[in-house]
Amino acid sequence: MRKIAILIMAFITSVASFGGCTFINFIKEKELTMKAHYDYGLFQENKATLLLDSCNFFFLPADYGIGQLLAGDIVHITHTGDLMIAESYPGMVITKNAKIKNITVEEANIIELEVERNAEGEVSLYYADCVYSFSDVRYVIHEDGTFEELSEKHIGSIIYGTEMSKTSVIDLQALYSYCPRATK
Known about the structure:
Blueprint: H1 2-22, E1 30-40, E2 48-52, E3 74-86, E4 92-106, E5 109-117, E6 123-127, E7 130-132, E8 139-141, E9 147-149, E10 158-163, E11 172-176
């Protein structure tokens, strides 16, 4: 009986010490994909505020080597743990139970547009020998973050738009009175 007890103790001791070396704790990485877009004056009066899927930023882009983000940019956030999103406006991403590992960005395309009037007299945008009416994008953002109605721009003005890089049709996300991401 004593030999059996000694054998059992030896077995338990070897399994316990062996287990600490052989069992590896894998932490699964997850990816959250968010699209950048603007809030026009609802969150901050008279200012265009860049949000990620209607949420405030929860990281500093420069900490991840990211320059200027624009509407239409797709942001991929690799993390471990759980990111929680508070359903408010603007939303808030809670990171206390998560660790952000990496952030990458698919940049939106920037296109040059000319403000025109169509046959009905409505403001339209001229791009690459075509005239487009963009009813979804009504504001033009200035460098200082303020914005104005597209209809207030002078005919013949050059403005810039961001559009989704993965679509085959022009899908404008925002309009700018300056060329964003241009080197100064």
